[in-house]
Amino acid sequence: MSKIKLQPGIDQITLYEGGAASVTGISNVVKLSSNENPFGPSKDAIEAFRRVSHDLHRYPSSDQALLRTAIAAAHDLEADQIICGVGSDEVLSFLCQAYAGPGDEVIHTEHGFALYKICALAAGATPVEVKERQRVTDVEAILKACTSKTRLVFIANPNNPTGTMISEAEVNHLADALPEHILLVMDGAYAEYISGFDGGAKLVESRENVFMTRTFSKLYGLGGLRVGWGYGPKHIIENLNRIRGPFNLSAAGLAAAEAAVMDKEYIEKCRLENNRLRTWLAEALTEHGVISDTSMTNFILARFASQEEATACDEYLKSQGLIVRQVAGYKLPNCLRITIGDESACRRVAHAVGQFREGAR
Ligand SMILES: *Cc1c(COP(=O)(O)O)cnc(C)c1O
Question: Is there a contact between 199 and 186 (Cβ–Cβ < 8 Å)?
Fold first, then answer.
């Protein structure tokens, strides 16, 4: 037995499983398991990345000022209320590290993103799972679960892997009714897919206890570079900056993200194409008897009659070179999460699901 003592919570963490990327023995594989933008990033971001390759010996900026200024300009926010992280994952982790510890509770929803629980446990805090209502965040249930020990409430709006979201009125009600000692974290990883939606930025500006996280990994197509950010009250940003490594983001990540956020035309194009294909795919799947909730994101949560059918369909899709995501770990055993790919990928998925269902009958 080792005498090295582990901090509480760490050994309860279940390792995060990323989406699979290959199927042995099959070529022409399409990866639809990690909600990546099938069109990749803006050309400007690629160009900025190339330019940085001439200066790889230089440390990156530690104040992240250029990127924060570009984000602030694009989203009409205050640059000094922004912090950038190695993916929004790192910002979520800073929040737990700074505001929750042993004996404290961190609320997440039944089908909420796996990182909330991992970050809470890593900080020694106790994750508390709150039921959803038919795969939708239940504000009343969250409020009921709050105690004097609660420090953080994480909700993703829209949520992954359900794709559903709650209305602005419901979010406002949650923020209004939440005890003031609790920090509400609005994870806006998919906020850009909804035209005109601010992801909770206005709430941050009108409250002392609301924080928003965002990412460059989804619509901006930069998952490989790991860039995310948070927007919150100044006192929280100051505290998170105390624990942030001074050079957490690479020069390449900073430069590419800055260029990406300025290319509004490209982002608009990706959003429109995603949303068009999402509607098309949802309808095509419904025609084959596979239903889904209305998704506000870049994926569809396809529902099957049973876990057996979902698993069998996953196997069939794999045999056709289509990699999607099983979400039994998110308490959705009869569902598959399918990222919206490009048009040809969507057609292949619809065709394969159709074939699977015909074989099943
Ligand atoms: C993908 C995702 C993130 C973040 O990802 P990063 O790549 O770390 O920025 C955060 N929250 C949700 C709900 C996500 O789906």
Answer: yes
Confirm if 203 and 172 have CB atoms less than 8 A apart. yes
Ligand 1 centre distance from Cα of residue 110 (Å): 17
Average pLDDT over residues 133-151: 98
Backbone angles phi, psi at 184, to 5 degrees: -90, 120
What is residue 147's DSSP assignment? Answer: -
Residue of minimum CA distance from atom 11 in ligand 1: 189
| Angstrom distance (rounded) from CA 313 to CA 320 | 11
160 lines ligand 1 (CB under 6 A): yes
> What pLDDT is attached to residue 27?
85
- Residue 314 sits at the vertex; the CA angle it makes with 283 and 282, to the nearest 5 degrees, is 10
**Side by side, which strands form the sheet with 291-292?**
291-292, 299-303, 335-339, 325-326
Structure tokens at 324: 């999607």
Which CATH fold topology does 17-40+265-360 show? Aspartate Aminotransferase, domain 1 (3.90.1150)
For 249, the 3-state DSSP assignment is coil
With a threshold of 0.90, does the pTM exceed it? yes
Ligand 1: residue whose CA is nearest its atom 1: 189
217 has pLDDT over 70: yes
For residue 254, give the nearest of 51, 78, 66, 90 by alpha carbon.
Answer: 66
For residue 254, give the nearest of 221, 216, 212 by alpha carbon: 216
- Strand, coil or helix: what is 259? helix
Q: How far apart are CA 98 and CA 94, in angstroms?
A: 6
Atom of ligand 1 nearest to the CA of 226: 7
Type of residue found at 119: C
For domain 43-262, which CATH number applies: 1.10.10.10, 3.10.129.10, 3.40.640.10, 1.10.1650.10?
3.40.640.10
pLDDT, mean of residues 207-225: 97
* pLDDT, position 76: 97
What Å distances lie between residue 296 and 36, 62, 192, CA to CA?
15, 35, 10
- Asked if residue 233 has a cis previous peptide bond (ω within 30° of 0), the answer is no
Q: Give residue 18's pLDDT band: very low, low, confident or very high (50, 70, 90).
A: confident
Q: Do you find a cis peptide bond into 179, omega within 30 degrees of 0?
A: no
C-alpha span between 231 and 71 (Å, rounded): 10
